[in-house]
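Let's study today's protein:

:::
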Amino acid sequence: MSVIVAEVYEALLEAGASEPKAKAAAAAIPAGANLATQQDVAALKQELKQDIAALKQDIAVVRVALFTFAPIILALLVKLVFFP
Protein backbone atom coordinates (compact mmCIF):
# COMPACT_ATOMS: atom_id res chain seq x y z
CA MET A 1 0.00 0.00 0.00
CA SER A 2 1.25 3.50 -0.75
CA VAL A 3 1.28 6.23 1.88
CA ILE A 4 -1.89 7.86 0.57
CA VAL A 5 -3.74 4.56 0.40
CA ALA A 6 -2.54 3.60 3.89
CA GLU A 7 -3.81 6.93 5.23
CA VAL A 8 -7.21 6.31 3.65
CA TYR A 9 -7.25 2.77 5.03
CA GLU A 10 -6.50 3.99 8.54
CA ALA A 11 -9.07 6.79 8.28
CA LEU A 12 -11.74 4.33 7.19
CA LEU A 13 -10.93 2.03 10.11
CA GLU A 14 -11.14 4.96 12.53
CA ALA A 15 -14.47 5.97 11.02
CA GLY A 16 -15.87 2.55 11.84
CA ALA A 17 -15.59 0.66 8.54
CA SER A 18 -14.82 -3.03 8.75
CA GLU A 19 -11.28 -4.12 7.88
CA PRO A 20 -12.19 -5.90 4.58
CA LYS A 21 -14.26 -2.93 3.39
CA ALA A 22 -11.53 -0.45 4.36
CA LYS A 23 -8.92 -2.52 2.46
CA ALA A 24 -11.13 -2.76 -0.61
CA ALA A 25 -11.89 0.96 -0.61
CA ALA A 26 -8.23 1.91 -0.06
CA ALA A 27 -7.11 -0.46 -2.82
CA ALA A 28 -9.61 1.10 -5.25
CA ILE A 29 -8.00 4.53 -4.92
CA PRO A 30 -5.25 5.00 -7.54
CA ALA A 31 -1.75 5.75 -6.35
CA GLY A 32 -0.40 9.23 -7.01
CA ALA A 33 2.02 7.94 -9.66
CA ASN A 34 -0.90 6.86 -11.84
CA LEU A 35 -2.41 10.34 -12.02
CA ALA A 36 -1.61 12.89 -14.71
CA THR A 37 0.17 16.06 -13.69
CA GLN A 38 -0.57 19.49 -15.12
CA GLN A 39 2.59 19.16 -17.20
CA ASP A 40 1.34 15.83 -18.60
CA VAL A 41 -1.98 17.40 -19.55
CA ALA A 42 -0.27 20.44 -21.11
CA ALA A 43 2.05 18.21 -23.16
CA LEU A 44 -0.87 16.11 -24.33
CA LYS A 45 -2.82 19.23 -25.22
CA GLN A 46 0.08 20.51 -27.32
CA GLU A 47 0.46 17.14 -29.03
CA LEU A 48 -3.24 17.05 -29.85
CA LYS A 49 -3.07 20.57 -31.29
CA GLN A 50 -0.23 19.48 -33.56
CA ASP A 51 -2.16 16.38 -34.64
CA ILE A 52 -5.26 18.46 -35.41
CA ALA A 53 -3.18 20.92 -37.45
CA ALA A 54 -1.69 18.04 -39.44
CA LEU A 55 -5.15 16.60 -40.07
CA LYS A 56 -6.40 19.98 -41.27
CA GLN A 57 -3.54 20.13 -43.75
CA ASP A 58 -4.33 16.61 -44.97
CA ILE A 59 -7.99 17.53 -45.43
CA ALA A 60 -6.97 20.62 -47.41
CA VAL A 61 -4.88 18.47 -49.75
CA VAL A 62 -7.75 16.04 -50.25
CA ARG A 63 -10.11 18.94 -50.99
CA VAL A 64 -7.78 20.35 -53.62
CA ALA A 65 -7.37 16.93 -55.20
CA LEU A 66 -11.11 16.32 -55.16
CA PHE A 67 -12.06 19.64 -56.71
CA THR A 68 -9.24 19.39 -59.24
CA PHE A 69 -9.70 15.84 -60.43
CA ALA A 70 -13.46 15.36 -59.99
CA PRO A 71 -14.39 17.72 -62.87
CA ILE A 72 -11.77 16.12 -65.10
CA ILE A 73 -13.07 12.62 -64.36
CA LEU A 74 -16.65 13.78 -64.82
CA ALA A 75 -15.77 15.34 -68.18
CA LEU A 76 -14.09 12.14 -69.32
CA LEU A 77 -17.09 10.05 -68.27
CA VAL A 78 -19.47 12.39 -70.10
CA LYS A 79 -17.26 12.16 -73.19
CA LEU A 80 -17.19 8.37 -73.02
CA VAL A 81 -20.94 8.05 -72.51
CA PHE A 82 -22.26 10.68 -74.89
CA PHE A 83 -19.47 10.90 -77.47
CA PRO A 84 -18.09 7.39 -78.02
